[in-house]
Structures are given as structure tokens and as C-alpha cells.
Specification:
43% helix; 14 helices
Length: 307
């Protein structure tokens, strides 16, 4: 008898690559239920359940039909580590929705993916989202400007890196408040982290689909078709409106509840009328070549201008 395996779609990539938008759009298909950045919800030090934050379903955490159940179960498992907490979350998902729906995890972090692919009774399909380095850099600079307190030596950005990298971050964290003001820093960070993700996926021969955020924004019809073909499912909502998504996202893009942004797939083109990326683009041609190869590989074969 064939053992039933829980199917998971894992979205991997850097922050600010459109994973929450894709999670919500996939959640419009009755076959998929997204849970956002599960890892960030389950981290004990983040206290997400105590905060009682709004879920993308419109309810607060304790009233949410999914996360409210998980919160109660994990309250009795205070000593459980992250792997165990993830296992309890999967069990709650199966108890509530049965064996058929596919869970969407947009945690994005490579370390989390390494944990998920090792889980027993799990079949993982990976969507690797990568955003144009110029657009990503502008997004990070905007975040740096709007939330400067996050980038202090004792701020959230440093704590997040410390959690991911351990003691090594203390060797240079004194300079990060300064470095994070520069576009060159984000170009280098983008290149190093994306190469790590791509090399890991290829080394382990993981079944994955590489998706450029910019491709998705510029040609959503083509890219959503390719995504659902990769996942082996049909497109249910051709308008890609996510207002009726059945995803339960606690952690993700802070704009997830804005009704205008959930009317479809919209491309953030603010980088096109900014110039902070010009200098690193000129200084780092290798990164720009990598950007052109990796971000636009799907749509360049379907350009009407090459015919």
C-alpha cells in the first residue's frame, strides 16, 4: 500500500520578492491553502500568537480557523523545537483540511527549506522567486529609510541576521548600520544569497520552478500558466484576484490586507524612476549579467519583439 505524503509548495527566495502575493493568488485555487511565512510564526522568540495579529483571512490570530487551532496546540508544547512545532502545524493542517489540499509555505528562507525537504511523509515542490536586483535594491533602501530603527545595532535587522548566521554576525555587525545605507551592499547581498539558493537547489536535484517577480508582474497570464503547469493544476481564477483567497497568512507583506492590492497581480515599477542602482550596476557588470540570465529566463523566450 502506497504511503500518503503531505504535498507542500515551498516558496524560496529573498525578502520582498512577491511571495505573499503569490501565496494569496494560489490560495484562490481550492486545491491550495497558503500559510504565509510559517517559520516566522512558529519562532518562539517572535511571540506571534501572543500578539493576536490580523490574518489574511480577516480574523485575528485567536479567532482564525487555522492559526487559532495551532496556537492552542503549541501552548501545550512550549518545549518543542522549531522542527517539532512545524510538525504539529502540519498535523493541524491535515486534521482540519484532510489529505487533499496542498499546503503553501512562503517562509522563503533556505534554512527552512533544508528542514522541510528532510521531513518524513512530505512531497515538496519548490518555487524559487527572484527579483531584479535593481528593483530589490530600491525596495530594501525604501525599507531602510522608512524604518531606520530596524537597522540599529540592536534593531530587528541585526537580530534577524544573528538568528540566521549565529555568532559570526557579531564580527561585523558594528558596520551594518552604515553598510545598509548603500546600494552596493544590497547588490552584493542579492548576488551572494541568490547564488546560495540556486546552487543548493541544483546540488540536491530538487524539483523547482524559477520565477522572476518581474516576469510575473509584466506578464501574469504567461507566468501563472507556467506555475500551474509546474504544479500540475488548472487555473481557476484567470483574473488572479486574491480577495477570496483561502490562505491564512500571519507573517508576510504588511500590505496583505489592502483590498486594492488583492484585486490582481500588480508590478512594483518604482525602481524605473529611481537612480540609486546606477552606480552599482556600472561597477558590478557580473551581477548585472547574472540578473539578466536568472530573472527573465521565462519571458525572453516568448518576446514578440524577437519574431
Amino acid at each position: 500500500m502506497t504511503e500518503l505524503r503531505r504535498k507542500i509548495v515551498f516558496i524560496v527566495g529573498l525578502s520582498r520578492v512577491g511571495s505573499t502575493m503569490l501565496d494569496l493568488v494560489l490560495g484562490c485555487n481550492p486545491k491550495f491553502i497558503g500559510l504565509g511565512e510559517i517559520f516566522q510564526v512558529l519562532r518562539p522568540d517572535m511571540n506571534r500568537f501572543e500578539r493576536n495579529e490580523p490574518c489574511s483571512c480577516g480574523k485575528l490570530t485567536r479567532q482564525c480557523s487555522f492559526w487559532g487551532v495551532v496556537a492552542k496546540r503549541l501552548k501545550e508544547k512550549k518545549a518543542a523545537d522549531l522542527d517539532e512545532r512545524y510538525g504539529h502545524t502540519l498535523q493541524a493542517f491535515e486534521d482540519l483540511y484532510g489529505p487533499d489540499p496542498v499546503l503553501v509555505d512562503s517562509s522563503k528562507l533556505l534554512d527552512v527549506l533544508k528542514t522541510v525537504v528532510r521531513l518524513p511523509r512530505v512531497e515538496v515542490k519548490v518555487i524559487y522567486m527572484i527579483r531584479d536586483v535593481r528593483a530589490w535594491t530600491i525596495s530594501r533602501l525604501n525599507n531602510r529609510k522608512n524604518s531606520p530603527e530596524y537597522f540599529r545595532r540592536d534593531g530587528y535587522y541585526i537580530k534577524k541576521l544573528t538568528y540566521q548566521l549565529g555568532w559570526k554576525i557579531h564580527l561585523f555587525k558594528w558596520g551594518l548600520p552604515f553598510l545598509t545605507q548603500w546600494s552596493v551592499y544590497y547588490f552584493m547581498l542579492w548576488y551572494i544569497q541568490n547564488k546560495q539558493i540556486r546552487d543548493f537547489l541544483k546540488r540536491l536535484d530538487i524539483d523547482y520552478f524559477s520565477l522572476g517577480y518581474d516576469e510575473l508582474g509584466m506578464n501574469p497570464d504567461l507566468m501563472m500558466k507556467k506555475i500551474f503547469e509546474f504544479l500540475g493544476e488548472d487555473i481557476i481564477d484567470p483574473d488572479f484576484c486574491s480577495t477570496n483567497s483561502q490562505s491564512h497568512i500571519l507573517v508576510g507583506n504588511t500590505k496583505k490586507l489592502e483590498s486594492k492590492r488583492r484585486q490582481g497581480i500588480f508590478y512594483d515599477n518604482r525602481w524605473m524612476y529611481r537612480n540609486e542602482w546606477l552606480r552599482p550596476a556600472a561597477l558590478l557588470p557580473k551581477i548585472m549579467r547574472y540578473n539578466a540570465e536568472e530573472v527573465y529566463k521565462n519571458i525572453k523566450d516568448h518576446s514578440i519583439w524577437d519574431n
